[in-house]
Amino acid sequence: MTQRIAGIDEAGRGPVIGPLVIAGIVIEPSQEDALIEWGVRDSKQLTPRRRETLEQRIQQLASQVEILEISAKEIDTQREQRRSLNILEAQWMAQVLNQLNWDIAYVDASDVNAERYGRLISAQLKAKNKVVSEHKADSAYPVVAAASVLAKVRRDMRIRELHRNYGDFGSGYPNDPKTRKFLRDWIRTHNTFPDIVRKTWETARSISAAHRQQTFKD
Fold first, then answer.
1. Against a cut of 0.90, is the pTM above it?
2. Which of 88, 117, 179, 189 has the fewest CB atoms within 10 Å of its CB?
3. Predicted pLDDT of residue 82
4. Where along the chain do the CATH 3.30.420.10 domains lie?
5. Does domain 5-163 have CATH number 3.30.430.20?
């Protein structure tokens, strides 16, 4: 009997603005050759245009696709309960896998301890099938690379929508000068951050603290 293979990956773990997106797909082993032939790889190694082209092909190839978007507000709510991002990601990845029918799942591990991360996911699964959790799984397994492409395309789409609504804040990553300028300008004008900002992130906290200090001085 052919084993159904699942791959799961995320996009948007580190940004201070925008959602975290987790994507999972299911294929048959024979379909991996198509992913390799198309040049599917870790989404960060592909141009935006190439990712969008591959996303359409992957959607057509996969027998199942499940995409979960976690808003900045939801991330903050969970983090305020002292829950680590690794534990939260494992929970959300398990949530995606629970919506799919698969026999073996390959996961890109977020924890420094890949085996521990796999156990965290397995503990929350309805079906006790095999979970292979590895670092850089999106480089080792085409099915995980395909999931990374779907997650990245979805997050990029959401970021474009947010740009239209809030203005161009850049990539949303803490090391982006445009993102940091947006945060400083926004809090100076509105005295708080919009819900698209992960307020529990150190970048947001430090900018908020600097604003309060400046306001106190004034």
1. yes
2. 189
3. 87
4. 5-163
5. no
Domain 167-217 top-level CATH class: mainly alpha
Q: Where in the chain is the domain with CATH 1.10.10.460?
A: 167-217
SS3 (DSSP) at 137: helix
DSSP string for 6-47: EEEEEE-SS-SBS-EEEEEEEE-GGGHHHHHHHT---GGGS-
Name the burial class of residue 112, with classes exposed (0-12), middle (13-18) and buried (19+) by CB atoms within 10 angstroms of its CB.
Answer: exposed
Q: Residue 120 to residues 94, 138, 187, 192: CA-CA distances in angstroms?
A: 9, 19, 37, 35
Q: What is the Cα–Cα distance from 135 to 137, expressed in whole angstroms? A: 5
Closest C-alpha to 200, from 45, 60, 70, 79:
79
Task: Read off the tokens for 116.
Answer: 């521990």
Query: What contacts 119, CB < 8 A, 6 or more positions away?
Result: none
CA distance 164 to 196: 13
Cα 29 to Cα 14: distance, rounded to the nearest angstrom? 32
